[in-house]
Amino acid sequence: MESLREFNTSTRILMGPGPSDVNPRVLKAMSTPLVGHLDPEFLVVMDDIKAMTQATLQTQNELTFVVSAPGSAGMETCLVNLLEPGDEAVICIHGVFGTRLADIAERCGAKVIKVEADWGTPINPEDVKQALASCNPKLLAIVHAETSTGVLQPLEEISKMTKDAGALLVVDAVTSYCGTDLKVDEWGIDALYSGSQKCLSAPPGLSPVTFSQAAIDVLDNRKTKVQSWFLDLTMVKNYWSGAKRAYHHTAPVSAMFAMRESLRIVLEEGLENRFKRHQKNHELLRDGLEAMGFEFLVEKQYRLPMLNAVRIPDGVDEALVRKRLLEEYNIEIGGGLGPYAGKIWRIGLMGESSTPNHVNMLLAALKQVM
Hints:
Layout: E1 13-14, H1 24-30, H2 40-57, E2 63-67, H3 71-82, E3 88-93, H4 96-107, E4 111-116, H5 125-133, E5 137-143, E6 145-146, E7 151-152, H6 156-164, E8 168-172, E9 191-193, E10 207-211, H7 213-220, H8 233-240, H9 253-269, H10 271-291, E11 307-311, H11 318-329, E12 331-332, E13 334-335, E14 344-348, H12 356-369
Parallel strand pairs: 1-12, 3-4, 3-5, 5-8, 8-9
Antiparallel strand pairs: 2-10, 6-7, 9-10, 11-14, 13-14
Helix pairs in contact: 1-9, 2-9, 5-6, 10-12, 11-12
């Protein structure tokens, strides 16, 4: 076979729904020489990651770790461990990822009670209240930051309703983690998953998760085996805790090095400072886009600061504009999904991609292209 040339990517400016730009410190960490996944030095790295994940999620949950797979595996980890055949689960759907939650719950053999809202709007707590009262729910699952629409879902009222119904609260925080306030303990979240490639600005492929004691009690009292061997927390948790680490799988060592450095960068900046930065850059982008005649999909009080969904103006070939942004300016933005395919752009301001420079580059490029 003829040898292939060395592969080099273009230097992109990542302003889509993920991944985001990565700090050079993180790329440098990935190039650290490998050690074994049970090496004492790597176990220290795992301990560091656990402690910093707890800090960034604002939780004391002992079972807090990183799944060796992307955010969708974190979603499965939460549901396959907490649901058994015949359980009733209330699933809130207001975009692509609520739909995915319902699909996985059904694959677990659960009876799914759906609470739906129009895409681009948050879930109505009154609808949640009625759904919880209509069944004997094991859990309620909801997306905090719906990446497909740019909706930031308020959680505290729904959390109280869920607790009053005796159910666990499961939260998708893939896009909100490290970009906007997320208080696991204060908000009564029992199981949460995220991803490494959004506001954390690490490479894709890892999923931070956390489980409350109530969730662990449900896991410990299962009557059936977890349907996934790889994601079975009854085994995985023994790799992440305890004096004697039990082998479960070969961890992605280089990705873990990157995760550790990304978390260090977040904590150096400080959570509150990071949240303010994302909000400030969102407002800068909003003002610039509205001055050009763009309208946002989501009402102001429910907009994600890190994922901006804007309507395509009449007469604009949205795919052509995105293509020209990529080819002529190396700027990536995302198109719409589901009913909003071809109707909105999804502009990411996540982590390292949330700077005034990113905003101004995009606005200038859009003015030229359009």
